[in-house]
Specification:
Elements lengths: L13 E3 L1 H9 L6 E7 L5 H12 L4 E4 L1 H7 L8 E5 L7 H10 L5 E5 L5 H14 L3 E5 L8 H6 L9 E4 L2 H10 L3 E11 L9 E5 L8 H4 L4 E4 L11 H16 L7
Parallel strand pairs: 2-3, 5-6, 5-9, 6-7, 8-9, 8-10
Antiparallel strand pairs: 1-4, 2-4
Helix pairs in contact: 1-2, 5-9
Length: about 260
């Protein structure tokens, strides 16, 4: 049997979960939605609201058995709703600078060097959106991209946070420095993050969950910051560490950090 004409079921083509679906349908992301699948026999106010929102935007709504939604969502926690969408579009570096300029703010970027866990990336996107990061830069290879799991974990932040997917992060780092952005990496030894001067145009660089920042990229850093720890476990989850650092940068930029 020739399956070449069958529709694609790549996991990156779906949004799962009620909150993520609602956020997608309420934003520009609705333009990428091809169909809304709702679990048959499941009744709730939130699912009814999603159905009405989809119909208002003239997006087809289909009732489907739970086992179909389980398959489409790769057995994720879909909560009775799956959106079939075109793949997420990536931004380019100029888009990130334009976003900062439109807000009349110095660039505030986040570079993720090889984050592999989609839950970490989704959580990081939520925090980045909360503190006003203008965009995230990730590598094209050996790192998670914008998948359905990332979308669900981000609880809608994926619709507001532009992401650049770069072939070479070292080249990106060099270009950022040429354009006046200071690069701050993270490691076990460096400036205490509470003394980090995060004012002005900056990019925070977070390394891989296990290996940290790649050596060649680390050479491009203007300064290394660290989170001091006194416990037995001398490491933090990537999304937790990123959250601490982003909120410190936010505090400094708002004038409420420890720096004058």
């Amino acid at each position: 049997m020739n399956k070449s004409n069958e529709p694609k079921t790549d996991a990156t083509d779906f949004v799962i979960g009620r909150h993520a679906a609602h956020e997608t349908l309420q934003t520009e992301g609705a333009k990428r939605v091809n169909k809304v699948f709702l679990q048959e026999g499941l009744k709730s106010d939130s699912l009814h609201a999603l159905q009405q929102l989809a119909k208002a935007k003239r997006i087809p709504v289909q009732s489907a058995p739970k086992n179909k939604l389980d398959t489409l969502s790769d057995h994720g926690n879909h909560q009775g709703v799956v959106l079939a969408i075109t793949p997420y579009a990536y931004a380019d570096l100029d888009d990130l600078f334009a976003r900062a300029e439109a807000k009349q703010q110095p660039p505030f970027f986040l570079i993720l060097d090889g984050i592999e866990d989609p839950h970490n990336l989704g959580s990081i996107m939520r925090t980045a959106d909360a503190v006003g990061v203008h965009g995230i830069i990730i590598p094209k290879h050996r790192a998670v991209g914008l998948t359905s799991t990332v979308a669900k974990t981000s609880t809608g932040a994926i619709e507001h946070m532009p992401v650049v997917r770069a072939t070479n992060l070292v080249a990106v780092a060099k270009e950022l420095k040429q354009r006046g952005v200071w690069l701050f990496g993270t490691d076990m030894a460096g400036t205490d993050y509470r003394q980090w001067n995060a004012k002005g145009a900056i990019a925070l660089v977070i390394g891989n969950e296990g290996k940290g920042i790649a050596p060649l990229l680390k050479r491009e850093m203007d300064e290394i910051v660290t989170i001091p720890m006194i416990g037995h476990v001398q490491s933090l989850n990537a999304s937790v560490a990123t959250g601490l650092l982003l909120y410190q940068a936010y505090a400094v930029k708002q004038g409420s950090g420890e720096l004058p």
